[in-house]
Amino acid sequence: MAIRLGDPDVPQMDLFRSEQMCLVQLIIPAESAHETITNLGELGLLQFKDLNADKSPFQRTYANQVKRCGEMARKLRFFKDQMTKASISVAVRSAAQKDLELDELEVKLVELETELLEINSSSDKLLRSYSELVEFQLVLKKAGVFFSSARSTASAYQRELEDVSSSSRDIPMDIPLLLEQEMQTDPSKQTRLGFITGLIAKTKVAAFERILFRATRGNLFFKQALVEEPVLDPATNEKVEKLVFVVFFSGERARMKVMKICEAFGANKYPFPEEVGHQAQMIDEVSTRLAELKATIDAGSRHRDSMLSMISYQIEPWSLMVRKQKAVYHILNMLNIDVTRKCLVAEGWCPVSAKLQIQDALHQAAFDSNSQVATIFQVLHTKELPPTYFKTNKFTGAYQEIVDAYGIAKYQEANPGVFTIVTFPFLFAVMFGDWGHGICLLVAVLWLILNERKYGSQKLGDIMSMAFSGRYVILLMAIFSIYTGLIYNEFFSRSFPIFGSSAYHCSDATCSQSSRSGLIKTQSSPYWFGVDPAWHGSATELPFLNSMKMKMSILIGVAQMNLGIVLSYYNAKFFRNELNVWYQFVPQVIFLNALFGYLSLLIIVKWCTGARADLYHVMIYMFLSPTADLADNQLFWGQKYLQILLLLAALVAVPWMLLPKPLILRKRHLQKLQGRAYGILGGSDTDSVDLDHGNDGDHEEFQFGEVLVHQMIHTIEFVLGAVSNTASYLRLWALSLAHSELSSVFYDKVLLLALGYKNIAVTIVGFAVFASATIGVLLCMETLSAFLHALRLHWVEFQGKFYEGDGYKFQPFSFSSIAKEED
């Protein structure tokens, strides 16, 4: 297919200009509306307009259906949470299983949720009872040990008292004086102590004991025993380290205080029988009850797991169905409903090339729904700006995203994404030129490409996701880095005579270390490709490479800026805007090339002739003293007269950009007001003005002052930008120099220094440090730095010459995009 970039009547390449779009209207019978929208969602080539923008979501016709789908989506999220807690993964559904209708699915989900909630409720109650019985069992065992120990101690003490009373003649002096009073007291008059047993968290024991002591004024006895393993707390269902405690007190008031303090600290209280026989009986009963509860809980867990396993085979298709149906009802809510004719009216944008596919989908929907009336499809004519749609694939999509991050192209505006595929990785490589580092990048990105199916189905982190989505950008960045690295003749900062022998040799044996010795040319034919390896390590290496890279940066910058201006010409021709051709494109080309195009010519002539002219001096005195004699700075005959001519052309180009366009627009406006130019206003130039300003000229008041100020700003921006943008391209030289010097420092000061010690351990450490520095600094940080600088050169210096980027993206209703979304 022949491609004519400036002719709107000729089919364009897919990526250079966006697809031709049309506004269409659909009149859909009510009985086939759902099936129609579903088929269009499967096709994914129609962007619907909201015809009910003045209504809230709750006032729309299908609000209840959307609410139903939202409720079903909530149930499915609940099932997924339960599956995650049960460590059950989503399984692949068998192809033989039948799909449910939406109403059947709703009933099914309600039944499953009800059953699952009942199972969970029963399990929670059983688990709480089980945890309480476990704690009760611990209290019986720990407190039983304490009471048994206290009982044996009391028996021994009682026998000692009986021995003392029988031998009344010889009473030891160390027996307490109260012992005699206690022995003489009537047992019926002795105060009986009460006690409370339970469990409390280990972290609360100190405060719990302190509050008890203060509340009872020390009239208590507190005993505690540590539980060896954390126990499941009945209230929180979390494992907590706890202690079994026994609190002895005297009196009813003390008992009430202890009970309230236990409740405040969240201590679980359990009864404890005083009789030993009763204690053993209760321990047996609790153990039996625990075994029964354990069996019941396990059975419930197995039933729940089997139920969740069954759901796991269906949850993905169910979720997808619910998302699709919810999206369909959202679209139906955007349509106008004609009650009298029992139909729905839809409007939307679609590519012109997709009209037949859409009509086929509409006929299929009418057939599937047994509708007696087919959907009416008609194209509407409008002055509204259509959306922008580019057909991309996994290779071109990443480059288009780079452009879209700056701004979506206006409808059928020249797309810089076509040129970005080549220029972006090339500018990156100019700053990153080292074929050793390029090979490392290439190996890493080839691993991503070869495993793209694996990584494409996984959820990656932020950095890994960005690297994977831009894998084809990194691929070309690596290939171009190898290419520029071969030109620079740099492999981890080292040079190799790959393309033949060197054309130079050192003037003495120490020329690589000397600051005065240079290189002597030994053969007439130059080194075949790239920089001669003899320059690396010589005293003149840095001046030579700096001069070459700086001039090369200017040449690349001027070429890319000229490309941007040429694309502005194709935009003007495509939109039939002759004003922009004669009063924007032409003076911009003259101004830029009269100054920096001429500088590029001088650089090429100086390279070809080997002259020693000072180009700084030539460019400065071209403005300060254009008629002065050039002397040794003259590169060709007639250079002085050419410079005067170019300077005059640049001076003329400034008012050429500034004045004619506003004056012509003013003249046309006055002719329109006088009613003498309707035919002219109906032509192409008026349309071009409307496209420039983004409004309908018939309804917009013309303001000559605003137009003049706008054109003045545009002119000043271009004139100053021509200088600043050319200087901005020197970043190519600066970053290339920084990358080369960093690589050289890491090689000389780390790797060679470690090898000089001739020690295996030092060599291994030195190589590890060199590899870490190379990967961390040169392959990560320098890659990111060069990427960002190349991004700025494209967004500002290149796209600023022609790209408006004020359009909006074509976002069709498509089930394929819905399938990729997460709940």
What does the model show?
The protein is an alpha+beta fold. About 60% of the residues lie in helices and about 10% in strands. Helix 1 crosses helix 8. Mean pLDDT is about 85; it is low at about 10, about 170-185, about 515 and about 675-700. It contains 26 helices and 13 strands.
SS field, number of helical segments = 26
Q: Roughly how many Å is the radius of gyration? A: 43 Å
- SS class: alpha+beta
Task: Give the uncertain stretches in residue-range form.
Answer: 8-12, 171-185, 513-517, 676-699
What's the β-strand tally?
Answer: 13
Largest sheet: 5 strands, antiparallel
Percent in helix? 55-70%
* Percent of residues in beta strands: 5-15%
Basic shape: extended
Distance between the termini: 44 Å
Q: Average pLDDT across residues?
A: 86
GO biological process, one term: vacuolar acidification
Subcellular location: Membrane
Organism: Adiantum capillus-veneris
Protein name: V-type proton ATPase subunit a
Quick rundown:
This protein has 823 residues and is of the alpha+beta class.
Name the features.
single chain, 823 residues, alpha+beta, 5-stranded antiparallel sheet, 4-stranded antiparallel sheet, 8% strand, extended
Ordered list of secondary-structure elements with their pairings:
Layout: E1 21-29, H1 33-43, E2 47-48, H2 63-85, H3 102-166, H4 178-184, E3 194-201, H5 205-215, E4 220-226, E5 231-232, E6 239-240, E7 242-249, H6 252-264, E8 268-270, H7 276-312, H8 315-333, E9 336-338, E10 343-351, H9 355-368, E11 376-380, H10 396-406, H11 417-432, H12 435-450, H13 452-456, H14 462-469, H15 471-488, E12 504-506, E13 519-521, H16 541-574, H17 578-609, H18 615-624, H19 639-658, H20 660-674, H21 678-681, H22 684-693, H23 704-728, H24 731-756, H25 760-798, H26 815-820
Antiparallel strand pairs: 1-10, 1-11, 2-10, 3-7, 3-8, 4-7, 5-6, 9-10, 12-13
Helix pairs in contact: 1-8, 1-9, 2-3, 2-7, 2-8, 3-7, 5-6, 10-11, 11-15, 11-24, 11-25, 12-15, 16-17, 16-24, 17-19, 17-23, 20-23, 24-25
Organism: Adiantum capillus-veneris
Pfam families: V_ATPase_I
GO biological process, one term: vacuolar acidification
